Structures
1.
Amino acid sequence: MKFMIDYQFGYMYGRYFMWNFVGKQNDSQGHLDIENGNWLSGINFIDEMRLGSQQSLPDDVKNNKGRNTYFFLPLILGLLGLLYQIKWDKKNLYVLFLFFAFTGFAIIFYTNPKPFEPRERDYAVVGSFYIFAIWIGFGVLYLYDKLKNFANKKTVALAISIVSLITVPALMGFQNWDDHDRGNRYTTHLNAQAYLESLDPNAIMFTIGDNDTFPLWYMQEMEGIRTDVKLVNTSLFATDWYIDQMKRKTYNADPIPTSLEHDQYRYGTLDVAYYYPLPQFKDTVVTIDYFMKWIGSNNDVTYYNDSENGVKEKIYPTNHIRIPVNKANVLKNGIVAAKDADKIVDHIDITISDRAITKNTILMLDILANFDWKKPLYFTGGSNDDNEYIWLKDYMQLDGMAYKFVPILTPNKYRTSDGQVRQKSLFDMGRIDPEKMYANIQKWNWRNINDGKIYLDEQTKRNAISLRNNLMRLSEEFLKQKDTASAKEVLDLSLYKMPIEDFGHYSISLGYPEIYYKIGDTESARKTAEILIDIFQQKLRHYSTYKDLESVFDNVDTDLYMYRNILGQIEEFDLDRNYLEKLQDDFIENVKLFSDLLPDDTQETVPLPQQPLDSVLP
């Protein structure tokens, strides 16, 4: 009950309601923090009671087009309208109030949203906002009713109408236009096209959710781009009707290679297969062809039978599978470049789940068993789960925005200096063929992404993380090959198209100075370093205005860490000690803003990193 009242009705619905009639802090999703997704009135002393200081705001906060303030005016007018209806129209009030409750609180109660959904769910309760908008209209009548006796009634009506129009709908329209204007925006178009143009001809690509599927469908259906590609949505791949669609030709793309028939995966059949080790398969690796024959078999030995309870479930006796590599087909179909032929392995061993696999995973394995290296297989990289890559993360190649399955081992795990084995993040997964990836990125249509006029919403900025990271990885790959010209070209492209200050997520940009230094472009290294330092200084100055510094301690710590990261790179690579010392002095001054949070012996001297830091942080 407390969760429902405090979080679902309070934090979720309460924020959504106030967004619409008081104002909105920004376009980032809220996670019970004070910096994102809260309601904001624009009246500082009120906002500061809830959200901390609103002084010395950083540029990225002030200039966020999703920051809209209405100064409570729509809310006040709506409450006045509610009072007006309570007094003069109780009969219809009950109808509207029930409508308001059932399209707001009742929907929240019925859908029972969990904390931190993938996105804000304000659209689910928009009906209640329509009802409150009716009360805003009644608010105008309330004002007229109160003021009509103070002057000519027509004059009062005209004056109230004009004032109400300016202070509520005109104000809201003015505040909201820039973050609701979709004109001349092609960022989703770019993202979808970048995925498709990262693929080899006649490829099959596994997508996962909405954002990495629907835009790609649009590009194929409406713009006819890369209709040779077979897109397989793994979420839908658990349904028999969708599997049937995938087994048919779509556009210019051939059906998926599969051995399973409809009756073997129809609704209610083969929904899941459980790992049930059998003694005769102990320490055995079976070929993927054998594994799929076992899965498709009706033989009783391939099931767990509990006749007493009427249970019959498909099992698999081993989770160790071998995928043979047809080297001739790999090279013939361009899955691996001829220059890398010596890196091709003879076979690939994978270890699948030791619990169970669901229908969509079974069908993905079926494609793997039947494609015979005649078509390239790709993954969008929209998840970090091993099963979304059918346990092939050690054999990925980044070709732009998509990861291609190649028979070249690129371990996705590494051993730390203290002997611990860790898995790489998605930011570092897979190998890169720099020439191939470079050719692919030349096809990307950036259009006006950097014109400074269009609205870069939070989803666009998140999509840009992959674009930026992948271009930085390509630049580093060229650098490893001593091709500094190409490395600089790619790095320059990423900065020109996605300026650091416009796209947020600054941790992903920390590697720019180091890469530029390694290229030999000190001027660009300093420029990117100074941009990042200015951003961190703005944030630190803002946090220093908080009365309760403990409330922003984690944010201060993070920004100081990233600030030190930049200084560490300059200390490592820049030969001008005077330049470094000036920046260090500035850093010390910024640290002193938080002297109350620091031990006394650290206020005079703050140690800087003594070794190079990671170029890119997730």
2.
Amino acid sequence: MESKTAPQPLDIDESMFEISGLDLFDRVRERMGWTDQYLTDINNPEHPLLKDVDRMVMALEILRDSGKETTIVPDFDTDGICAGMILYAGLNEIGLTTNLHVPDYQLGHEIQPTVIDAVRQRFPNTSAIITCDAGTNSTAALNHANDIGLITLVTDHHVEESQSLAHILVNPNRIDETYPNREICGAHVAYQVVERYASLYQPHALSAITWLKTFAGIGTVADVMSLVYENRDLVREALMFTRLLIAAPQPAPTYKKVKSKYEEPDEFDDIDITIDRTPTLLSMLRSQNHHPVYMRAFEGLSMLLEELGATHERVDEQLYGFSIAPAFNATRRVDGDYRTGFAVFTADTPDEQRAAAQQLVEYNLQRKTQTREILGEILESDQPWAPYVFPTDALPGMLGLIAQNLMLMHGHPVAVVRIHADESCSGSMRSPTWFPVIEQLSSLGNPNIGAQGHEFACGVHAPSPQALCDALAILVPKRRDEVIAETGILVHSDPAALVLGTSADADAPLHEIKAITQYMDAVKELAPFGHGFPAPPVDMVINLVTCSIHTMGDQKQHLKIITPEGVALLWWNRADLAPLLSERKNSINVADAMCRLRVTLNLNTFAGHTTLQGIVDHEVEIAPES
């Protein structure tokens, strides 16, 4: 009888069953439409010259050669400040005698004739003005400047409504421009002007001018320009330069070696070694010969980064969009001193520059505090036009921030308005992507009710809060029903490109930290992300029953959810949701405990241990099972 041999065990490699981070990345690339060709195209930085840029730099060189003075007239927002500093530092570095007019946000974005008078009064030898991030449509001011004999040079990026009165206009959005990328910011336009000037007439200054890309990159992100084509290359270089403006990390403490009684003393005993932590770029610039205005610009930016707590590891596009830009824009939101933003870069002494940087940070803290206080007042008071219209006496600069918070709370369009003496109202609206505000209000055919700006973040006006509320009470439910009828679900945001957690459509469970980290590393290589090239949307699906829910922060204003896998979900300024989430956690209805959150992934390292975090933007409605 033939004997049977026992079957051999299968040679199974357990790694075959592991989820790969690169596989997750490939799935996301496919869902986002990121083909090799697409990525090649959007990373092509080549572009033609802006129309009339050579005429403008020739005019500037004539002014320099003849010893004439030029005064810069910028806008007051972050892009305007960055554009102003590029021209102020760059033109002085090149050798053109240049003054800077500091704009007052109370006068609005358009340049007024009174500004021209103020320039002449303060800088009586001015022969030419050069605007930045403003001026194209400032007809009255340009007409006045031309009448009193000033040369008017305008650098801007706003749409030219009718032929500008400027002697020379450089603007990607002028009527007769053929420049292919209309989405470059005012600071980028200013940079292209000074770079072209240096390359044609003062090539010795070109290397110094290149460092000013830092300001152009900040302006690009702050003004929410599309991060494609030349903007991508610009922001990448700006971020690299920004890292060079941050001091080296403080070295870990060292402990003095205690010698035994048998060791002989030597000349190195009791010597303290001082480590120079000066930012690399500042050390280099200080060793060279630069104009004081140019040097103060970089010294001030370095101070601001220090006051904001920036580190080399945290330098990315979010530093520009969520730290630097809000700090500059906070000044007008809290009715602060309009001179503060420019003083960071132009004050006479380092101490004054440092004080201005600290004041900006303080304004931003005030802005955050006021936002919480105003929200609290609104939520605790009688609101006759809720849930669509909320009146307030808050400063105009705060209305958009409040509307954004209320919109996220309610999940539908919200207007925050100030009521005027004639009972009319105006303010800001914020809306989810399923309700385009301008389009919807225009459909009323009522010129007294309307909006201006972007579809989902705009200014709004109406004869009264009641009239606006009545209009939204009709339009919002109607639009909501239309969207649900078309899609089966009310979509508040784009579909997720990656889903993590406990849902049927999850790409990976939360315990696959290695794969998720590999995915994060692969995605990071494609940065910068922003408008026009958004980061892949990530949803994290959790079961609240298995999670712990906490509040945190000095005022317990933030929400923290910890999953069984140790993943921390941080929801800034939403501690108000803690009772509701706890109620859902304890609900007898299983579906209530399921929570799908749109998050930004990051890693947190503490005491040598790295954990996964998700910064929550909003909750995503879970589609009902068919």
3.
Amino acid sequence: MASRGKTVQLNNMFVADFETCDAEKVYKLDARTGKEIKHQKVWLAGFKNLETMESTYFYSLDEFMEAILSRGNNVNTEYAFHNIKFDGSYIIPWLLTNSYTVSLGRPQAGEFSVLVDKAKAWDSITIQVTKRRKVLLWDSQKLFPCALEYLPDVYSTPTQKVREDSEFYERVRPDGYIPDAREMGYFENDLQVPAEALNEHIKLFDLRFKKTQASQSFYNFEQGFGDWKGFKHWKFRFPALTTDEDKSIRPAYWGGIALVPAVKAAKKGKEDYYNIGVMDINSSYPDKAANKKLPYGRCVAAYGEGQHPNMSKFWVAEALVEFTLKENCLPCIPSAAISEGRPKETDKWMTDSEGIVRLRFSNIDYGTMQLSYDIKVWRWCWSMHWAWKVQKEVADFVYMNNDNKVKFSKLAKLETDPHKKVYYNTMRNRAKTDNNAFYGKFGEDIVKEGKTPYWENEDVIWRLDRSEEQNENKRKFLPVAMAITAWGRRQLVTLANILGEDFLYCDTDSVHYLLTGQWKIDLAAEKGIIKVDAEELGAWKLEGKAARGRYLRAKCYMEEMIDEKTGKTHIEATVAGLPADKHSGQFSKKRSCLNWDNFYIGHEVPAEKTNKLRTVKTPTGNKLLPTHFKLREKEVLFG
């Protein structure tokens, strides 16, 4: 048995789950439907030990909580919930009404703390039972960001999730209810699926595995730099910024561009386009991390007002600028990066500054903006500079993972032994995940704001009252994330502008266009302006063709895709916020509630057809209810 303070051992690790339903007591009337909303209760709960794979069941929340908080042999334990935001909504009120108090910092005996950020994203609940015993409840969905149904795909584990009909989930069980064999089988399956995935993960990364996908990938990346006297080498290359430095340059950290030009968007009716091509970049951000110059080290120079930045360095600057989009070019300046002078009516990606504005941007984006805009800098306010170069260790990590992804994909296709096939698929998925997740940690906030629950007036009230500034050891190096995403935008903008009037839509690393413009792509590739290759890292590839397409706004479009082998067509709909059809696949774009007749701005999909659930809060836990979905003209710009 591990001593207190050491890594939690496998025999003290569990997966856990709840089944819930309405209680008898009415809470309120639903503002949307006028129907009664009742308090919620747990009618079946349980956990499965990851070492023995034995399950323990309980028929109330009281029984479950008393079991996990029992003093026992004073060892620390961990319980993984797949979506702790839901299950935690039952645990928090129980703790607050059962002699536990919430702590803003590290909890003491009889206290608990929560990690819930300002956007209401849940991470964990830590309960300090006694001075010697701590219970951690954490979210396995942060480590495996997919629905439980698709969790077996991560490591090719054998148990598949059991499916039930809506009546099963909506049925009210009375107090003292004893589940039948069908219900127990369903619940046991919901414990077995995550337990198998976690055990496979632990085999790869041992008991000290990280509890989010990005953290695990970044940890794997760190190992490529090695240690020097116990200090990570990457910390010398990419040192922590000061709080003031981070605050100054963070507004220049922009995201991926998802956009349909206003002249191509189907606003008033059902304006469609035909004969469409879709080009994707092979692993865009990993390619930029490996093959483009990235900043490193301490800030080497800071220029004041009126001084032009040093173009031989990586820099971030604030300037007074004025800009207008060139004809048939892709907007690439986000309105959120403007601190003064922002027009009252504007899209997320701006076409016109409508006068002089104050903007923060990097040197890479400065070059990209000039591809799309007639832009004038009226005055440089300040700039900060770093040395930059292609980072060999980063490139080694990316290409190692890319080579492994290709190698194990081929081996998995050829292998007939089912056990070896599982291993090859596992290694392929791990390599792919590492490449796609590690670089985002460089952009992590150094000041983390969070919410805290309080029990007031017989209900849980959340307040945004926690602000934690990361210590230097935990901070990453923001300029790297800025450079990687900026290089990605440069590649996207370059192709979109080449296509000009034939450009229809883009999203981060893909471009949709009229095939009448294919000659422009071919000519650009012939001249070496862009690279087209089905396999090469960072090259463009033809992802597919569509017979028809309709584009409403960012992340909201429908296409009739053509099967390359059969020539048959099928409809795919990408609509942010509207779930795909049930059981149609983790990355499915099948949304049967939409078709060419109803896919337009203003159409409302009724609740019984959306597969979308809304959360209704009650004092004893959250209730999920079907909800409608309306196709709106604009996405949310801020917040």
4.
Amino acid sequence: MKIKFALLAGCVFSAAWIGGAPARAQSAQQPQSAESPSSIASDADMSTIVVTARRRTEDLSRIPLTVSAFSSETLQRKSILSTFDLTRVTPGLNISLSGSSVNPVIAIRGQSRGLAGPGTPGVLTYFNEVPLPSYGSLISTYDMDNIQVLKGPQGTLFGRNAIGGAVLTYSRKPTYELGGYVEAEYASFNSLRLEGAINLPIIADKLAVRIAGQSSSTDGFTKTFVYSPYILTGPFNAAPGSLIGDARNYGELDNKGLRVSVLAEPVEGVSSVTVLDYFRSRGNAPIVYQGPFPGGEPAIYASSPAELNTLGLGGLLIPTFLCGTSPSCDIDLANLYAKDNPRRSAYTNMLPDGKTSIFGISNTTTIDFSDQIRLKNIFAYRTAKDDHNTDIDGTAMAIVDVVDRVRLQQITEELQLSGEAFNQKLKYVFGGFYYEEKPNGIGGREADGISVFNGLNVTTNINYQHETTKALYGQIDYDLSNIVKGLGVTAGYRYSWDKTYGCVYVADYSLALGGTPPRIGEYGFLPTEEQCKTGDFTPDPNAAPGTTIAENFSQKSRKGTYTLALNWQATPDLLLYATTRRGYRPGGYNSPTLPAPIASVQTFEAETLTDVEIGTKGRYS
């Protein structure tokens, strides 16, 4: 057993079995099967970096594509604990969070997705060649083999259409050697991370299992003071909220992950890898105080109690915005507490808590008919479950607060045929792809309760959205060295059929319209998907009269996309290339249901993007 110690913002312990230490990825000089994603060279040999961004092992410096590649060794050395950390080491990549601590918004070359709403992401994350849903697609990098970040439109080679790029993540596959590793790390703010893996050969050269897991937790560095919201004691009277003891802190996280991989190679030329993964997260990311009213406080809230009484608004606003006794019902006190307290303190009226659980199972089976022809099938099933609170304004008052609920399931199926011909001058990939995302319980694609103006206006929305994608694609690369030495051309095409359909439900509980708002942090009535589709439900009597809406929707789009590239390996160390690509993002439905003045943008059409990339790649000694 080999043990080493290091100091990293605390005390770190790590131990690895010599036979199963984190394997370094192979360099180009080492033999490797074409399907293996375990192909990023370690830092021990940076002369050649091999990637599988184009579904075959290639020298990174010789492909007409912008790729940032990270081996397992590099991920560990740079302390990349999740794909969120890739922002620190990848030029042109930006990852932020929306609500949940595992719900990323990824941007490459200006393409991303909205912070809210059901739009398809511009940049997709893949786990072992499976495209992930936008919710819960932040990947923990424990026992990870490699990560590759692709820039520009994708789709003619694999998976789902993306107009901005893709983040490809690959976990370590089982091998036929007994081994494993264990790591432990403790740091400030009671941060603890435990990680380990064990590789078990079951039948020599036939069956192997790899089990990996990680547990990480931290108390967070933001001391959080949580106030209960005020309580209406009459039509226009309220009792102030109080400080809640022993509440969680923002940034106080508890994450656990488990991954089981099974490699089966029953006969020569047939390989099947099944991966089961589970991830659970509890906690909420820190909030940032930016003032309760973006753009400035409305003049009405600067009025004195006497002025409000004169305007006839005193009975409504004095007990809820100018109570003078608690930051939960006094806007001046709320601002004072949020701005003037020490750093690393936060005041909120929402319990800083959230729970996310993600489950997935995938199988990748490859059949080699010969050294030149391979058939690959990739099947996956995933579920995502999420419940979160978000304090938008960052104060102890309920200016703008949101509770979210997500219940999703996803099925993907992809069949690929790849190979070589004409003495390896022609290389090809042809495939078909199917994707289905649908609700998996009450909440569906997203349910939210939005509380505005200290709970005087509360809206409950729910979106039972279904998405399906069907596509055929193909790409060829041809060596034109018989014309000009080192010259090559790439051509790819994809045609996609997309459909978005479902039902949305909206209920307005505004006090001014005669509704009775639910308590802040709670939902009003949430119908099932069937109730929403058929309208067979009794409107919530607490909602404002006549403001409950249930509406079915459907939107279809189809589009052809392409890739064209010309590359010239001018010298063994210098590549010149020019690439143009057409990307596509399907149309959809903006939820919730929009009011009449802007109802014309309730649906949106498909979006296309054409890029041109001219570049050079080289190795310099």
